[in-house]
TrEMBL record:
Keyword Cytoplasm found: yes
Keywords: Cell membrane, Cytoplasm, Membrane
Family matches, as InterPro entries: HAD-like_sf, HAD_sf
Annotated localization: Cell membrane; Cytoplasm, Cytosol
Protein name as it appears in the record: PGP phosphatase
Source species taxonomy: Eukaryota, Metazoa, Chordata, Craniata, Vertebrata
Gene: Pgp
Top-level taxon of origin: Eukaryota
Membrane-protein topology: Peripheral membrane protein
Gene3D superfamilies named among the record's database cross-references: HAD superfamily/HAD-like (3.40.50.1000)
GO CC aspect terms: cytosol; plasma membrane
GO molecular function, one term: sn-glycerol 3-phosphatase activity
Amino acid sequence: AALPGPAPADWVQAPLDPSVRAVLVGFDQHFSYAKLCQALRYLLRGGPDCLLVGTNRDHRLPLEGGAGIPGTGCLVKAVETAAQREAFIVGKPNRFMFDCVASEFDVDPKRTIMVGDRLDTDILMGNNCHLTTLLTLTGVTTLDEVRGHQDSDCPERNRLVPDYYVDSIADLLQVLEE
């Protein structure tokens, strides 16, 4: 919805749904200042009882040819900044998603592999959940980044190191066929 009027005093006049008890921030190609204003208004009205939930903190989404676009983390950060509070992230690297799946299915972490193209979400979640991790180098992560984390004395950086890596998921498929 558009902002109701030309001035900031007008923007706080749009009606709020009294049943809203949470603000969810996910990928939204139509994210706008008007939506940011509404999110803040709900969070201020509800105080700590109004949840702020984010789907993930991906800072960039990779596109073919090395291009990228801003990721959901940019939108989450905008709402967090306006609200002056941190969102609860339900997606990677938080183990919430894994725990939900594991509660419904018989998942053995020792026999489960997390495959992904990002250290800060995919690999970190796999390591947080004690899974074997496999990094594909087709996303935003480079092998130099992995080596930098691997060579670090910082435990937090070491948690970003995958167990294995492949240039492409196609490489994994080739090995599985053998």
